[in-house]
Amino acid sequence: MPEREAARPPATTGGLGAPVVAVLRFDVPEPERAGFAAAGERVLAALAAQRGFRSGRVGRAVDEPAAWLLVTEWSGPGAWRRALSGFDVRCELTPLLGWAQDAPGAFEVLHERETGGPALSHGSARAPDADTAAPGTGSREDTAPGSAGRAAPGSGAPGSAAPGIGAGVWRLGGR
User: Fold this and answer.
1) pLDDT (tens digit, 9 = 90+) per residue, 60-100?
2) 3-state secondary structure (DSSP) of residue 43
């Protein structure tokens, strides 16, 4: 246990920016289950090499052989998001995403406690308008300067050069 504590960045008590726990759930079909643990281990190794990684686990449900879980902890939401764009992470994680459940997967840690340790609280890093803000909403138009009301190229809006590309929303998994 001392090794883990030394590698883990110290938690704050009331400062801004909470750690993030990322949870990806998978429904793995019978023929793929035998190799899923090894694939999950490769994903975990790729994620562990990313900046801001704190810990991670790959697990299987004890009463449902198709249900698998990848749980990682990060220094903050930015570290988690940046880690997903790492080349090795994309190469290892992408083949598994076809079995991922489409559900919220990144959670701020607001309160935590480890065995024998103090209770820690973290301030939220969520923006005040996080529940209502979305690409293309708000007080200013989602257009490029000087575009005379045309959509910015790659914005995903009608009339943009590349519909859907650059829309700013990534859904992991899903069917």
Assistant:
1) 999 999 999 999 999 999 999 999 999 999 999 999 999 99
2) helix
Give me the sign of the Cα torsion angle 158, 161, 164, 169. negative
What is residue 157's DSSP assignment?
S
Contact (Cβ atoms closer than 8 angstroms) between residue 2 and residue 111:
no
CA distances for 141 relative to 66, 146, 151, 158, 175, angstroms: 45, 12, 9, 14, 32
**What's the CA gap between 46 and 141, in Å, rounded?**
38
The pTM score is 0.65
Kindly report the backbone phi and psi dihedral angles of residue 151, in degrees, each rounded to the nearest multiple of 5, phi listed first: -70, 145
CATH number of 13-121: 3.30.70.100
- What is the rounded distance in angstroms from the CA atom of residue 49 to the CA atom of residue 72? 12
CA distance linking residue 150 with residue 106, whole number of Å:
34
Tokens representing 106?
């990144």
Structure tokens, 109: 């840690």
